[in-house]
Design a protein that fits this description.
There is one protein chain. The chain has about 210 residues and is mainly alpha-helical. It has 10 helices and no strands. The protein folds into 2 domains: about 1-120, RNA polymerase sigma factor, region 2, helix turn helix motif (Rna Polymerase Sigma Factor, Chain: A); about 125-209, Arc Repressor Mutant, subunit A, CATH 1.10.10. Helix 1 (about 1-15) crosses helix 5, helix 4 crosses helix 6 and helix 7 packs across helix 10.
Length: about 210
């Protein structure tokens, strides 16, 4: 299919090349979407390069399977390619893409009858400024926090993931998951409370959230 071929080419080219022009970096997501709506594959390549890793991590936390997340990632950007002309700029492009990703993931989970959502530990980014002791402390803290996150309900884990790992605002999270902002705030409150309880049970006073 034409769109699948276009996205496959974009993905392949993006994953095998790290070079980006300064002009591409300066182009806003909204401008890229406008170009994609006109069939610009270069713009699609730049948008994919800019967002594919974050979307992939979001997907893998939802479906708990790397191969499934990879398939869904391609589906998400195929959808972006097909519907770019319908983007109405009511939210940021990144929020729109994450909304598509969430819908694709939930559809996959329903169709495959997964019983539970398993979290994938996000790949840690090494800070070369840290000395070995601090690096170990951070790794231990991250592992403990991830363990606590895994014990949250799917709804609570999802809002924490979007807010703290994907830097989405309360308003943006509400748009992505399709609930009122007050519902998001309530879920965040209960998620933080539960994490604090779990961390306290491990002898840690603060949950770092």
């Amino acid at each position: 299919m034409q769109y699948n071929h276009a996205i496959s080419g974009v993905a392949a080219a993006t994953r095998t090349s790290t070079a980006k022009s300064s002009s591409a970096k300066a182009t806003s997501d909204e401008v890229l979407i406008g170009l994609i709506a006109k069939g610009d594959k270069d713009a699609m390549r730049v948008l994919f390069a800019r967002h594919n890793l974050r979307v992939f991590r979001f997907l893998i936390r939802m479906v708990g399977n790397e191969a499934t997340a990879e398939d869904l990632l391609n589906e998400v950007f195929v959808h972006v390619w097909r519907t770019a002309d319908r983007f109405e700029a009511r939210s940021q492009v990144s929020t729109w893409i994450l909304g598509i990703a969430r819908y694709k993931a939930l559809t996959a989970l329903r169709s495959r009858s997964f019983d539970e959502l398993d979290d994938e530990v996000a790949e840690a980014i090494e800070d070369t400024a840290d000395d070995p002791e601090i690096a170990v402390q951070k790794a231990e803290r991250s592992a403990l926090l991830q363990s606590c996150l895994n014990q949250l309900s799917g709804a609570h884990r999802q809002v924490v993931d979007l807010i703290y790992y994907h830097e989405q605002s309360i308003e943006e999270v509400a748009q992505i998951i399709g609930v009122p902002q007050n519902t998001v705030k309530t879920r965040v409150f209960h998620a933080r409370k539960r994490i604090a309880e779990l961390m306290a049970a491990q002898g840690v006073e603060h949950a770092w959230l």
